[in-house]
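Appendix B, Record 12. Input sequence as logged:
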Amino acid sequence: MGVPRKTIIIVLAFFAIYVIWGSTYMLNKVAVSQLPPFFLAFIRFLMASLIIFAIAKFLKVNLAITKKQFFNAAIAGFLFLTLGNGLVVFALKYVDSGYAALQISAQPLVVLIMMRVLYRKRIELMSYIGVAFGFLGISLLVSQKELISQEGQILGMVLIFLCMLSWAYASIFVGKVDLPKNSFVSTGYQMLAGSLLLGLISLVLNEPWSLPHNWHSDVQLAMVGLILFGSIVAFTAFNYLLKEVSPEKVATSTYVNPIIALILGWFVLNEQITTQSIIAAVILLTGVYFINTKRTFKPRGVGR
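Logged structural output:
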């Protein structure tokens, strides 16, 4: 017997959120070197949503959704993209791309605690061990004097933590609410809503807007990668997985993302990797492993 088609799709979806998303930290760091953060995120997700709708129209995919589904998609877009992504891009003005990915690797810990607080989910012994490792790893990561002394570093840390809270809650929210059954369509509406809110924030902050032909060539290439692969491919895969597996399993992308981000940040951007960061990474990822050793929660959304 061959491998079931659904299994293949799930494996490919995990590859997308593992490897492609790991590279987006470096791509965002390149783009934010010239573009203001909320304008950058606005353009990225607006273009991605328009491309998604164009592809769906070409494939004759039904784009009709209910008011409730659109409302839920708008909330998810706000949590995932306006707050979740917008704050990270802003933080990348002050912190290295690999460092940001490493801090975000603690997200499974946030998801676990949030599910305990909101849904009274029982925490297994192994997960308690994982939480302890997670807190130790984060402490080692953020206590590095050579990092804290850099201008804006503490602000970047705080913004990334807020992003983790928003993204963790959104991961649980999407797994439980009524959204379009087609993950591609659901992604499109989330990105459209999130991008419009990002554009509004950019205008309120009076960020300078510019056209692509005025961007540096490396920024243009980074934006193409962010739009086509980081947004359309990976985010669609992410939404698909949230309906098929538990939030904790989806959050295991944080095993691989920081490794990819650290390597690319070092190789492409010449970012420094300290010994303490490596130790913190090992401890953090060990904690994530313990947290995800058992599958004990499966969200049941409407229309599954």
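The chain has one domain: 5-291.
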